[in-house]
Design goal:
The chain is built from 15 helices and nine strands. By secondary structure, the protein is α/β, with parallel strands linked by helices. A hairpin with a 7-residue loop joins β6 (156-157) and β7. Bound molecules: adenosine-5'-triphosphate and magnesium ion (MG).
């Protein structure tokens, strides 16, 4: 992924780490039949320091746990890392029924014979993939127990009834977990101990400017900067507990820009994508005030975009 490497050089990411990535890619070329699994990200992850921490951990052979609030780019970073290291990626979602058979694989009868149908963890292990363990803290402990040997120095996977397999040297697991959501749980210590844990920061103001401009090249700079300040202000208010973090949602802010691009008035777009993320009418009022201090509600598409 040449474009991504050039982006990281532009961002000033440590050269030694990037050289490490190049060496990794040369050492572990992708099998042609797996090329379709190597991500081609539409969006780049912004955050130099986070990039450096993630690259160092993966180059050192560690598994990575990305922990942080909603919409901090955890999945975008996973995808970017898969692309950068040029690895086939398997996504594992820990839905309520995810059990060891789903993760590792299970016997299946195809009408004539019983064969082993590998699960995503097995495929990652055998094919040198990056496994994205999405929202791992939602998983049942029984399901996670099968991962213990795969995630520590043993780097092996035991499939009951079959041979134990060793993980390929380039296999890595990147888990994400969201804290602050109702219904999430902590991750048990034995599992946490098997990851290098990256605390995902909220995007920096300068990075958010770059992100918005890249995604919406025609946006007027003044408007863009107002949106960035609005986001920073919501962040401040959430931090000082004046509002909850329900409206502090970068997805919402970016969605609002998309709706304005469709021609929706600024007030309506921000109402739908930011204000209404809170279900508390008093809090909605507070959020509306923060927005009103920066934006007239009746900005049209031509006020927001150059063309
Ligand atoms: N630092 C960042 N760099 C690039 N994009 C970012 C960053 N932070 C947030 N985003 C944007 O926020 C949106 C959400 O990103 P993503 O889905 O990766 O978040 P997440 O952390 O996985 O959220 P959740 O915990 O809700 O699943 C995307 O549009 C993404 O581009
Ligand atoms: Mg996510």
């Amino acid at each position: 992924m040449k474009e991504l490497l050039a982006f990281l050089e532009d961002e000033g990411v440590d050269k030694t780490l990037l050289d490490g990535v190049r060496a990794f890619r040369e050492r572990f070329p992708v099998a042609p039949e797996l090329l379709g699994r190597v991500p081609e990200p539409e969006y780049f992850y912004y955050g130099k320091k986070t990039w450096e921490l993630a690259l160092a951990a993966l180059l050192a052979g560690k598994n990575l746990l990305l922990a942080g609030p909603k919409a901090t780019g955890k999945n975008v970073l996973c995808e970017n890392l898969g692309a950068l290291f040029a690895r086939p990626v398997w996504n594992v979602s820990f839905h309520i029924n995810a059990d060891a058979a789903y993760l590792v694989g299970t016997d299946t009868y195809d009408g004539s014979a019983v064969t082993f149908r590998p699960g995503p963890i097995w495929l990652c292990a055998a094919k040198g993939g990056f496994g994205v363990l999405d929202e791992i803290n939602m998983a049942k402990n029984e399901a996670l127990a099968v991962l213990h040997a795969a995630l520590d120095f043993r780097r092996s996977l035991d499939v009951p009834g079959y041979d134990r397999i060793d993980l390929r040297p380039e296999t890595r697991f990147i888990a994400t977990m969201n804290y602050g959501y109702a219904g999430t749980r902590d991750l048990n210590e034995a599992l946490t101990s098997r990851f290098a844990v990256l605390d995902m920061p909220v995007i920096a103001e300068g990075d958010l400017q770059k992100l918005i401009s890249r995604r919406y090249p025609a946006i007027r700079v003044k408007l863009r900067d107002q949106l960035v300040k609005l986001y920073a202000e919501l962040e401040r208010k959430a931090e000082s507990a004046e509002i909850s973090d329900s409206a502090l949602d970068l997805r919402g802010l970016l969605d609002a820009i998309a709706l304005m691009e469709q021609g929706l008035a600024s007030g309506d777009a921000l109402e739908m994508c930011v204000v209404n993320k809170s279900f508390d009418s008093y809090e909605r009022g507070l959020i509306r005030d923060v927005i009103a201090a920066r934006f007239p509600a009746d900005l049209a598409r031509s006020d927001v975009f150059e063309t």
